[in-house]
Amino acid sequence: MKRYLLAVAAVMLLAAPISAHHSTAMYEMSNPTTITGTVKRFEWTNPHAFIYLDVKDEKGNSVEWEIELMSLNHLRSYGWVRTTVKPGDPITCTGGRAKSGAPSMISALLKLPDGRELKS
What we know:
It is built from two helices and six strands, in the order H-E-E-E-H-E-E-E. The chain is of the alpha+beta class.
């Protein structure tokens, strides 16, 4: 009985982290999209960082894009810090656009105002 209860407890403890995993299935990864805009805000948060970007559409209207980045550990290994991007910075992002058509993407590469390119 103790082994059974221990096994049930172990399954319950592992179930939460497994269900919390994030997938890229909602993004079109095989056909990268590149957008350029101005940073509205940068969220240095776990499990993923986010950049909110003002992008002009084909009619000149401002559209807010949500740019998902990797985890903070990955970003740090690529050279990122909390102040890598700031509101007002013009940046270019390349990555997988949301399949739903929403103004959202998961970024693979980001070009900074100084010309540096960082994995994201």
